Amino acid sequence: MTQQHPDRSVFDQVMTPNYAPLDVIPVRGRGSRLWDQEGREYVDLAGGIAVNSLGHCHPELVAELKAQADELWHLSNVYTNEPALNLAQKLCDLTFADKVYFCNSGAEANEAALKLARRKAWNEVGEEKHEIISTRGSFHGRTLFTVTVGGQEKYTEGFRPAPGGITHIPYNDIAALEAAISDKTCAVMLEPVQGEGGVRPAEKAYLEAARRLCDKHNALLIFDEVQTGVGRSGALYAYMHYGVTPDVLTTAKSLGGGFPVGAMLATDEAAKALVVGTHGSTYGGNPLACRVASRVLDVVTRDEVKANVEARTAQLREGLQRINEEHRVFQDVRGLGLLVGAELVDEWHGKAKLFLQAALREGLMILVAGPNVLRMAPSLLVTEADIALALEQLERAVAQVKSETAAA
Ligand SMILES: *Cc1c(COP(=O)(O)O)cnc(C)c1O
Question: Which mutation among 110, 227, 367 tests ligand 1's pocket best, with the greatest number of atoms within 8 A of CB?
Answer without folding.
Answer: 227
